[in-house]
Specification:
The protein has 253 residues and is mainly β. It has a single domain, classed as Jelly Rolls, CATH 2.60.120.200. It has 2 helices and 17 strands. The strands form 2 sheets. Strands 1, 3, 4, 5, 6, 8, 13, 14, 15 and 17 form a 10-stranded mixed β-sheet that branches. A 7-stranded antiparallel β-sheet has the order 2-7-16-9-10-11-12. Strand 11 and strand 12 form a beta hairpin. The longest helix has 12 residues. This is Endo-beta-1,3-galactanase.
């Protein structure tokens, strides 16, 4: 008579419910893209590099969806208006490019952990600065699942403050082949900090702690910035950044 209740309790504890927040089909069409993603950065078109982001339901010049793949394309421009970025440190705008951000904000709590994954083909050429990252309004905190700064490395970064930063660099090929990246975000036992497990090609490559990240909604951004931290001059032609099989799942009650 005791086994039945015990088995019921064990199954209830061990089997947390998993919900798909963004499915792997979100890049299957522009309608699907616009169901789960917004164009540009959460704050607008400019950031800390020389590319100004473009994109809207009527403008797919720099944000292209085809064959279940998102392609962000940066192209040189000579007639930007205004000619300098509206974001600090206000570099000259020399490219048009693309960015999207998820409509759902990642919010790790005691009850909710997240897994964020996808396959990426990212340029490592000097002057190209693709990224796949999260940030909290007011910055920091920040978590970089993918960041390429003009060298053959992917940077796994966690910013607790602007100066308290942990970075792990993992070699990344320069042949534009697709490789998988994944981040698993879980609340630490203190229910204050978040544990970030960063994977490349299904191998754990880094574990970081986000101090005080619990309960702080984070925007998830995919963007192709140029120059800035990746050096200059950037390419004289088009740069492509491709993403497929992107998925966000949330586990918890």
């Amino acid at each position: 008579m005791k086994l039945g209740p015990l088995l019921f309790i064990a199954n209830t504890v061990c089997c947390a419910q998993a919900a798909t927040i963004i499915p792997t089909t979100s890049f299957s069409s522009y309608a699907a893209l616009e169901s789960y993603w917004n164009y540009l950065y959460p704050w607008g078109s400019d950031h800390n590099g020389s590319a100004r982001m473009r994109g809207s339901p009527k403008d797919h010049t720099n944000v292209v969806v085809a064959s279940n793949t998102l392609t962000l394309m940066a192209t040189p421009t000579s007639n930007a208006s205004p000619p300098t970025s509206t974001s600090d440190p206000h570099p000259a705008i020399r490219y048009s490019s693309g960015a999207i951000h998820a409509k759902h904000q990642v919010n790790v709590t005691r009850d909710h952990s997240y897994t964020i994954s996808g396959d990426f083909s990212a340029s490592t050429t000097k002057g190209t600065w693709p990224a796949f990252w999260q940030y909290v309004n007011g910055w920091p905190p920040e978590s970089d699942i993918g960041e390429w700064k003009g060298t053959n490395d992917n940077w796994f970064n966690t910013f607790n403050t602007s100066s308290a930063v942990k970075s792990d660099l993992v070699a990344w090929p320069s042949d534009l082949s697709f490789h998988s990246l994944k981040a698993v975000l879980t609340a630490q036992p203190n229910n204050v900090d978040v544990k970030f497990d960063y994977y490349m090609d299904n191998t754990l490559r880094a574990t970081h702690t986000g101090s005080g990240f619990v309960g702080k909604p984070m925007w998830l951004i995919i963007n192709l910035q140029m120059e800035g931290s990746s050096g200059s001059p950037g390419p004289s032609g088009a740069t492509l950044y491709r993403i497929r099989n992107l998925e966000i799942t949330r586990t918890g009650s």
